[in-house]
């Protein structure tokens, strides 16, 4: 948006006509063409009298133009033309509507003199008007940068990359844009993009490290990894070029190639990670995990030695051990949570979010998914800490 120089109405940046006063806005080339005489205009025999100059008559009827603000003097258009919304009768080709440059006073006839009480205003040089970057161009640059952020945000959500910090900067940029602080908004979007790019690159590096480990395992199993190795080179090339979307596409291709060879290895590796998280949640609630943790260490060694049968046996034994000691401790925790909700309600605290999480934890306990129930109870505790 920009402010109409004639009536101060806020006008869309691409508008050609002011909805408030009917001003017609033109680009510098169009205004220059409008100022030149047409081929059908005959040269006048004598200069018109100062009082009868048609341009002055047209200018006299125009409302006084307010002084532009400091941040508006550059303008979104080089020139603008004022005129009525209805078409002028073609009988007077020489009497054209007055044409002004933004930042310039109306052009007067050569023989006209300024009244004694009116101050003289010098026209700004053309180089000065064209030298500063217009706000219109900054607005377009900001829109382009925001459009480039959308696919990065989408990719980050798909690959579980943290976008919290980047999203906050985008929100601040939107607020600055609404206040017409375009330079600040552009800087914030650039910072948001840089932050998100670093996080995506870090996540991609971690994925590549896992793929390299899987490639080594596939080679140990005697599998054909030639195509997967070729895809790995493409991942590195796309990452160096900043094409993260293409890099992740090639990673998915590698996983599909290695799945028939390393499928069992990947399954056990995922189960080890899940058991490790479960033990950590148990220790948060002071559940005895000594035996289960020892079995986790042994299972990890068995997987490194490619002893899948022993790995499977140790994982099952550790999980069964935890499932025996978790229910009693969690029942105590659920009762404490209910009492905490009663106290919070008495203190006029909104307990709706906590009730939702507590119900979810209870349902997981009933279904026997103790690992997920532990996660829900940890979230419940975190929310209660925030509300005091």
Task: List the topology elements.
Blueprint: E1 2-3, E2 10-11, E3 24-26, H1 28-35, H2 54-60, E4 79-81, E5 99-101, H3 126-131, H4 135-158, H5 164-178, H6 182-220, H7 226-240, H8 244-284, H9 290-304, H10 308-346, H11 352-367, H12 370-386
Antiparallel strand pairs: 1-2, 3-4, 4-5
Helix pairs in contact: 4-6, 5-6, 6-7, 6-8, 7-8, 8-9, 8-10, 8-12, 9-10, 10-11, 10-12, 11-12
Give the key terms.
3-stranded antiparallel β-sheet, mainly alpha, 62% helix, two-stranded antiparallel ribbon, flat, 5 strands, 12 helices, 388 residues
Task: Estimate the mean pLDDT confidence.
Answer: 76
**Count of strand segments:** 5
- Residues in β-strands, percent: under 5%
Counted by DSSP, the helix tally is 12
Describe the biggest sheet?
3 strands, antiparallel
Distance between the termini: 45 Å
Structural classification: mainly alpha
- Helix and strand sequence: EEEHHEEHHHHHHHHHH
Helix content: 55-70%
Alpha carbon gyration radius: 36 Å
Strand order of the largest sheet: 3-4-5
Low-confidence stretches: 38-62, 68-132
Principal-axes shape call: flat
What does this structure look like?
With 388 residues, this protein is mainly alpha-helical. Among the domains are: 114 residues, no CATH class; 140 residues, no CATH class. Helix content is 62%, strand content 3%. It is built from twelve helices and five strands. A three-stranded antiparallel β-sheet has the order 3-4-5. A hairpin with a 6-residue loop joins strand 1 and strand 2. Helix 5 runs antiparallel to helix 6, helix 8 runs antiparallel to helix 9 and helix 11 runs antiparallel to helix 12. The longest helix has 41 residues. The radius of gyration is 36 Å and the shape is flat. The two termini are 45 Å apart. About 23% of the residues have low confidence.
């Amino acid at each position: 948006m920009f402010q109409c120089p004639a009536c101060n109405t806020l006008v869309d940046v691409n508008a050609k006509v002011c909805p408030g006063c009917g001003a017609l806005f033109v680009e510098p080339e169009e205004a220059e063409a409008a100022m030149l005489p047409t081929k059908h205009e005959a040269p006048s025999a004598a200069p018109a009298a100062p009082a009868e100059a048609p341009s002055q008559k047209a200018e006299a009827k125009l409302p006084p133009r307010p002084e532009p603000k400091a941040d508006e003097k550059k303008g979104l258009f080089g020139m603008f033309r004022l005129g009525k919304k209805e078409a002028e009768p073609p009988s007077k080709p020489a009497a054209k509507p007055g044409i002004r440059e933004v930042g310039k006073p109306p052009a007067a006839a050569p023989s006209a003199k300024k009244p004694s009480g009116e101050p003289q205003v010098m026209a700004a040089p053309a180089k000065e008007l064209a030298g500063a970057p217009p706000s219109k161009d900054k607005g377009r640059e900001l829109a382009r940068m925001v459009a480039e952020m959308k696919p990065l945000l989408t990719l980050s959500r798909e690959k579980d990359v943290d976008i919290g910090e980047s999203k906050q900067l985008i929100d601040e940029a939107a607020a600055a844009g609404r206040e017409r602080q375009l330079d600040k908004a552009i800087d914030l979007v650039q910072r948001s993009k840089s932050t998100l790019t670093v996080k995506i690159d870090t996540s991609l590096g971690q994925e590549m490290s896992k793929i390299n480990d899987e490639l080594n395992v596939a080679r140990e199993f005697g599998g054909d990894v030639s195509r997967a190795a070729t895809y790995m080179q493409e991942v590195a090339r796309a990452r160096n070029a900043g094409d993260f979307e293409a890099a992740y596409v090639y990673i998915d291709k590698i996983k599909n190639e290695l799945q028939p060879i390393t499928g069992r290895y990947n399954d056990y590796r995922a189960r080890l990670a899940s058991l490790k998280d479960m033990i950590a949640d148990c220790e948060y609630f002071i559940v005895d995990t000594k035996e289960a943790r020892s079995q986790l260490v042994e299972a990890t060694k068995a997987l490194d030695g490619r002893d899948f049968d022993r790995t499977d046996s140790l994982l099952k034994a550790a999980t069964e051990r935890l499932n025996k000691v978790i229910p009693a401790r969690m029942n105590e925790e659920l009762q404490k949570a209910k009492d905490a909700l009663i106290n919070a309600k008495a203190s006029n605290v909104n307990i709706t979010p906590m009730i939702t999480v507590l119900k979810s934890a209870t349902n997981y306990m009933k279904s026997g998914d103790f690992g997920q129930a532990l996660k829900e109870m940890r979230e419940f505790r975190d929310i209660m800490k925030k509300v005091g």
